[in-house]
Specification:
Distance between the termini: 28 Å
Structural class: mainly alpha
Number of helices: 11
């Protein structure tokens, strides 16, 4: 699939999110699974027996902390890897899974930093009667794609996102909410199904199924931010296919070093 580089309406942008995701669905899911296997293995160790609240050991607490840290790392690397995959969809080529993972792993520290800074800003804004938090969320919606695509620092990526979403915050928020509603619906339906068959499932099986559903459905949210990033560059900077080709080649060459 090669994305036509043109201006799009709100509905067309949302439709493009799903089109790009399904066009690269196999590779995106493969990335989620490859990164998630260590986490699932770790969870299998911590859920091998029922948890007794009266017998919480240091080992159990460390295991819970370890699972959380690993899940955060997986989330950041996966989100970063999706950037190159979606960039390839805009260009019409197929970056390898390893190239995408390498691009994310090289910037894992910056991914953590920009996500933390954006999360802190949105959280503090939400405390101020919610509305400021929503505005900041939309303002920094494409900070992660900008960080990786343009090789920026966390602070510069946030500033870049602010520029790209200027006068487009309502559009960014609308795309995020609609795609987020789809993800929420999928997760809730799966949770209901798991609850209905809870007696026939082990704890590990229930955790694994729910993790798979959350991971796969979450891909749509990550892709939405990347698609919106490229769409804003097309709209505001007359981004063309040659620019996109140079972009993807530059990232690929950097990862090959």
């Amino acid at each position: 699939m090669q994305v036509d580089l043109q201006h799009r309406t709100f509905g067309e942008i949302v439709s493009l999110v799903f089109s790009v995701t399904f066009a690269r669905f196999g590779q995106l899911v493969a990335i989620a699974l490859v990164l998630g296997l260590p986490l699932l293995f770790f969870l299998s160790l911590t859920t091998s027996r029922p948890l007794d609240p009266s017998d919480v050991s240091i080992g159990a607490l460390l295991g819970a902390v370890g699972a959380w840290v690993l899940s955060v790392v997986v989330q950041f690397v996966a989100q970063g890897a999706y950037v190159l995959i979606v960039a390839g969809a805009f260009r019409g080529d197929h970056p390898t899974t390893w190239a995408a993972l390498s691009a994310a792993l090289r910037r894992i520290g910056s991914l953590f930093a920009v996500s933390s800074l954006v999360g802190l800003a949105v959280g503090l804004g939400a405390l101020a009667f919610l509305i400021p938090g929503l505005i900041l969320f939309a303002r920094y919606y494409v900070a992660v794609p900008a960080l990786l695509v343009e090789e920026l620092s966390p602070a510069a990526a946030m500033q870049r996102s602010r520029v790209l979403t200027e006068d487009r915050k309502a559009l960014a928020f609308g795309v995020a909410v609609l795609v987020g509603a789809f993800i929420y619906l999928v997760v809730m339906v799966s949770a209901s199904a798991i609850a209905a068959y809870a007696r026939d499932l082990s704890v590990l099986a229930a955790v694994a199924i729910q993790w798979l559903v959350v991971s796969v459905s979450g891909i749509f949210g990550s892709v939405a931010a990347v698609v919106f990033y490229f769409q804003m560059r097309i709209e505001k900077e007359a981004y063309d296919v040659d620019s996109l080709a140079q972009l993807v080649d530059r990232i690929g060459e950097r990862d090959a070093e």
